[in-house]
Design the sequence.
């Protein structure tokens, strides 16, 4: 079984021998490029504030990346958790505004965080950057201009060159799928590409031969090379950092794959 959107770590520690997953990214790789990017900017950020939806994957992201943020030299000056039904974020936003963090890190799915960002705008929260782990067209349509300048991560976006990029763009075009509307699509395409290549490497549709090919092989995808660890997790693939610039989605990191230059500090959050 080659799964697509399974990113939390626990399932990979159960000793399952025929299970593989190609999420882009996994939790340990989620924001590698984001923190690499922000720590190279001027002015350099000093503090970060985490706001997390109460959900297993978003909590896993915060647990991991709050530690990584500290290792990178950022001081965590606040961490709040909210339920999916919460609509009044005033107490959280006021704490955030008082703390004056350089980076506000929102670990949430798209719909639950809409009122949070709206109220951050209404209460005039300021930061060098507001980072939303899961950017999407759903979030953009609901927020309108309020999403301007927000950064986030995505497995891949049209225009970024790589193995099977043209193939993937053709599939998206024929299926009338907008990658920003369906950000999990690339993980599904990667799962298909991996199984296809594994069967070719195995030379047969045989359970054991395909399993061995999956463990031993390196597989090509627009996300970058995919390889698996002993638990079946694709552990090397990194995601791309996006920024909403004048209402358009731009890839801003890594620099060699970027479709636009990062705007730092984010003007609309000043």
Sequence:
């Amino acid at each position: 079984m080659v799964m697509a959107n399974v990113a939390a770590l626990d399932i990979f520690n159960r000793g399952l021998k025929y299970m593989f997953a190609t999420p882009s990214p996994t939790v340990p790789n989620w924001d590698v490029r984001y923190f690499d990017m922000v720590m190279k900017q001027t002015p350099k950020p000093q503090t970060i504030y985490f706001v997390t939806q109460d959900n297993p994957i978003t909590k896993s992201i915060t647990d991991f990346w709050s530690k990584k943020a500290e290792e990178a030299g950022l001081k965590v000056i606040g961490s709040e958790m909210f339920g999916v039904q919460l609509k009044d974020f005033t107490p959280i936003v006021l704490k955030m505004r008082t703390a004056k963090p350089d980076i506000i890190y929102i670990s949430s799915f798209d719909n639950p965080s809409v009122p949070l960002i709206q109220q951050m705008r209404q209460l005039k929260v300021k930061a060098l950057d507001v980072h939303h782990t899961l950017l999407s067209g759903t979030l953009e349509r609901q927020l309108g201009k309020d999403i301007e300048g927000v950064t986030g991560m995505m497995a891949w976006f049209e225009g970024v060159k790589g193995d099977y990029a043209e193939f993937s763009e053709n599939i998206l075009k024929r299926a009338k799928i907008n990658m920003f509307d369906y950000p999990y699509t690339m993980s599904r395409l990667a799962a298909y590409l991996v199984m296809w290549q594994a069967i070719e490497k195995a030379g047969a549709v045989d359970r054991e031969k395909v399993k061995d090919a999956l463990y031993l092989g390196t597989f090509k995808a627009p996300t970058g090379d995919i390889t698996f660890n002993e638990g079946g997790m694709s552990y090397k693939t990194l995601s791309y950092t996006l920024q909403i610039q004048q209402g358009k989605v731009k890839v801003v990191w890594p620099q060699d794959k970027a479709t636009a230059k990062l705007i730092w500090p984010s003007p609309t959050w000043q």
Summary: The chain has a mean pLDDT of 93.
